[in-house]
Design a protein that fits this description.
Strand 2 and strand 3 form a beta hairpin. The chain has one domain: START domain (Alpha-D-Glucose-1,6-Bisphosphate, Chain A, domain 4), CATH 3.30.530.20. The protein has 1 helix and 4 strands. It is mainly β. The chain has a 4-stranded antiparallel sheet, with no helix packed on it.
Length: 91
């Protein structure tokens, strides 16, 4: 099985970065490959269990579910529910 990991250093105050990253539905505002994003149903964007549906610029559509969100630890995790890519165990 292939394992892929990536990290980066962001030259900005941690509180500003966290305010952007914790918005589970905000990645279309900063990620260049994402054309559109919405939270399914009426769940708040920071509710564990909420599902985001988004479209890539190439037309691919994905669904991801928020598994955990901790402001104290500045950590979130999510899993892939549906994607046009053959990926499994994506968390």
């Amino acid at each position: 099985m292939v394992r892929v990991c990536q990290s980066t250093i962001i030259d900005a105050p941690i509180d500003e970065v966290w305010a952007i990253l914790r918005d589970f539905n905000g990645h279309d505002r900063w990620h260049p490959a994402i054309a559109f994003s919405e939270i399914e149903g009426s769940e708040p964007v920071d509710a564990v269990g909420s599902v985001r549906h988004f479209r890539l610029n190439d037309g691919g559509e994905l669904r991801e579910q928020l598994l955990a969100l901790s402001d104290k630890d500045r950590r979130l995790s999510y899993c892939l529910l549906e994607a046009p890519l053959p990926m499994m165990g994506y968390v």
